[in-house]
């Protein structure tokens, strides 16, 4: 099997191009609002704690991922994507009309609903992409999606901050609403045939549990998702240390933006290389390699040197998405279509919820522990996770799937 870059084939495909454009457009608006919402609450209340709650409001619905993902298996995914995007646009237009009236609480409510809709959106999107792209190019597509996402994270927060500074928070809500309207048109233009979903034979609770049972029983998905959760837990702790790292370098807090830019550059690069790497290494080894790179990079951040910090930032940006791309691609390849929404949402909950916990734990540890001990300790945990994943039996391949281990 070829290991050359085939991302150009993805980009030449009409459906895949529209799909990626939709991801880029909606991702731009989401990233802009993510930054502006915290600044908005800070300006309204003067409270750093309330400003931090914006991130919690967006992430909290992830805990209900398995239940929300059931929606993506009960209806055709394309109409669901169109509906969710229009609903988000309407929600943001309501926030634009309300402005700052009522203080921060209407904004928190909108962010919570935004996060819940995002869980459904991600589940439907990940499930539909298998019909749009096809199994053989899933790794390339998911890599390009990562590149697009990270590119937006480099640009959109700056645009959101500038728009907020010039016209205030409601203007950012209006921008985000416009991106969802545009994404709606892109998703509506997809040419894909979807079979009507089967009539559910069980109640909502049992259907929700089916996704978790399938994921836990699968010999190839379970170790990947478990390793992804541990990796994201450590990544959350590491993320909470960024300003302490900046202090150790003798720099101002604004230097964190430089480190984030280096991390974003690493993520853009690994997204372009993900497809060939997945075909060469298989998902398990690709994820293990990414975790090992992350381990070394996190430990290296304990060295108070600008060049080391920049290289470590780029390596973190390359290592972490490798794990996420491997998990998502494996879930898409190994899961029957009728379960894909639930399994995807469950996997997202198991992988991303530890990141939120890690951020909270890291915020406490960074005040208590020396970086020269904390960061190498995180590196050891990540390295052990990488070795265990690499040594884990590959399991039995699903019908029509490529083998998970060994050169292609």
What separation lies between the terminal Cα atoms? 5 Å
Shape: globular
Number of helices: 16
Number of strands: 0
Query: Radius of gyration, rounded?
Result: 21 Å
Order of helices and strands: HHHHHHHHHHHHHHHH
Helix content: over 70%
Summed over residues and divided by their number, the pLDDT gives a mean of: 82
- Return residue spans where pLDDT drops below 50 for at least 5 consecutive residues: 396-408
The biggest beta sheet reads: none
How would you classify the helix and strand content by structural class?
mainly alpha
Strand content: under 5%
Question: What this model shows, in words?
Answer:
Helix content is 79%, strand content 0%. Helix 8 crosses helix 14 and helix 11 packs across helix 13. With 408 residues, it is mostly helical. The longest helix is centred in the last third of the chain and has 45 residues, at 256-300.
């Amino acid at each position: 099997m070829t290991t050359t870059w085939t991302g150009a084939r993805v980009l030449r495909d009409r459906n895949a191009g529209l799909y990626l454009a939709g991801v880029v457009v909606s991702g731009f608006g989401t990233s802009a609002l993510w930054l502006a919402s915290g600044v908005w609450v800070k300006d309204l209340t003067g409270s750093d704690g309330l400003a931090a709650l914006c991130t919690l409001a967006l992430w909290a619905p992830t805990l209900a991922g398995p239940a929300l993902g059931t929606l993506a298996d009960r209806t055709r995914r394309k109409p669901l994507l169109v509906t969710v995007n229009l609903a988000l646009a309407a929600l943001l237009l309501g926030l634009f009309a309300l402005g700052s009236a009522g203080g921060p609480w209407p904004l928190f409510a909108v962010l919570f609903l935004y996060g819940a809709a995002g869980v459904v959106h991600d589940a439907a999107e990940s499930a539909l992409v298998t019909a749009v792209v096809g199994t053989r190019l899933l790794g390339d597509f998911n890599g390009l999606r990562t590149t697009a996402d990270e590119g937006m994270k480099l640009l959109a927060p700056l645009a959101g901050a500038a728009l907020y500074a010039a016209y205030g928070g409601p203007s950012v809500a209006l921008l985000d609403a416009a991106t969802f309207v545009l994404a709606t048109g892109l998703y509506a233009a997809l040419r894909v045939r979807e079979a009507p979903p089967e009539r559910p034979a069980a109640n909502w609770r049992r259907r929700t549990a089916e996704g978790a049972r399938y994921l836990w029983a699968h010999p190839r998905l379970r170790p990947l998702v478990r390793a992804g959760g541990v990796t994201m837990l450590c990544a959350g702790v590491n993320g909470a240390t960024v300003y302490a790292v900046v202090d150790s370098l003798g720099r101002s807090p604004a230097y964190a933006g430089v480190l984030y830019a280096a991390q974003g550059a690493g993520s853009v690069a690994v997204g372009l290389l993900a497809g060939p790497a997945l075909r060469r290494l298989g998902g398990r080894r690709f994820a293990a390699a990414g975790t090992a790179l992350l381990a070394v990079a996190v430990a290296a951040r304990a060295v108070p040197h600008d060049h080391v910090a920049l290289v470590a930032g780029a390596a973190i940006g390359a290592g972490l998405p490798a794990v996420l791309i491997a998990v998502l691609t494996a879930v898409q390849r190994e899961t029957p279509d009728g379960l894909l929404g639930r399994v995807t949402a469950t996997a997202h909950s198991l992988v991303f919820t530890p990141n939120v916990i890690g951020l909270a734990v890291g915020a406490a540890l960074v005040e208590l522990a020396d970086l020269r001990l904390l960061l190498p300790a995180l590196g050891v945990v990540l390295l052990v996770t990488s070795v265990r994943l690499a040594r884990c039996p590959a399991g039995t391949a699903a019908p029509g799937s490529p083998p998970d281990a060994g050169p292609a």
